[in-house]
Write a structure and sequence with these properties.
This protein is mainly β. The protein has two helices and 16 strands.
Length: 258
């Protein structure tokens, strides 16, 4: 009887270690402290985030996808003035399917986090008049991104965030390489459900007085591409696309498993 119980407990422990078979994503119990709050903005890393603990129907299970996959341990190769570099601006980044293998079809993206470049100073307190985030399935895969923003947006586009954004000095840690991710930029208008295909991120930001650069991979993999336009209301990029990848972490909830 004891042997049977021990075998059952061992099997359950093994199945809980990595039920989704992923390495670029980590999950947290929905009741745990949210990333970027009580820990000063740094949040948890894949090494200390633990494993999924809510085995129900997936509704209480959350995860985080970091791009690039080694972002938690490696400083990226360059810095990017988007979206916090000073002047108002708008950019679009497309991620190819090979970068999204750890994001299950049907997962709901609920927020995002950026981080300062390793050489950037801490923020002063900032109040952005508007910070807008859109997500959609891109009409254009990496390598073919259009300079006209509307041509890239998918028919399933959701404006997940809009309105003022306050940045406190403690929201974005500095002084390390790599820095910890900043406070979660919550989606105050809705969420986006990923259904497969290339993912398009669009961010519009008004001016930041004490502009700071974020961490960035350039040149990046051919599976990511970005276009940049001047001004919050830009409709076109100022020039051709770049093979850039702004370091980002997406928070999401897993789709129901039954």
């Amino acid at each position: 009887m004891r042997a049977a119980v021990a075998s059952l407990l061992f099997a359950l422990a093994v199945s809980a270690c990595d039920p989704f078979g992923t390495s670029e994503v980590f999950a947290e119990d929905a009741g745990a402290t949210a990333p970027g709050t009580a820990d000063g903005g740094g949040g948890a890393s894949p090494a200390d985030a633990g494993v999924p603990r809510d085995a129900g129907d997936g509704g209480g299970l959350s995860g985080a996808l970091q791009l690039p996959a080694n972002a938690s341990t490696t400083e990226a190769s360059s810095a990017n003035t988007s979206p916090f570099g000073g002047a108002g601006q708008r950019f679009q980044s497309v991620y190819g399917v090979p970068l999204l293998t750890a994001l299950p079809n049907g997962a709901t993206i609920t927020g995002m986090r950026l981080r300062l470049d390793g050489d950037a100073m801490s923020f002063k307190r900032e109040n952005l008049m508007n910070f807008e985030v859109r997500l959609s399935t891109s009409k254009k895969p990496p390598g073919s991104l259009s300079q006209t923003f509307a041509d890239n947006r998918g028919s399933d586009e959701v404006i997940v965030r809009a309105g003022p954004l306050t940045i406190e000095p403690s929201d974005y840690p500095s002084g390390a390489k790599p820095n910890a991710f900043g406070k979660t930029i919550d989606f105050n208008l809705g969420t986006f459900t990923y259904r497969g295909g290339p993912l398009l991120l669009e961010v519009g930001a008004t001016a930041v007085q004490s502009g700071r650069n974020v961490d960035n991979v350039s040149p990046s993999t051919q599976e990511s591409q970005t276009v940049y336009g001047s001004g919050f209301s830009a409709t076109r990029a100022d020039g051709p696309p770049f093979f850039d990848l702004i370091v980002v972490e997406y928070t999401f909830t897993y789709p129901p498993t039954k």
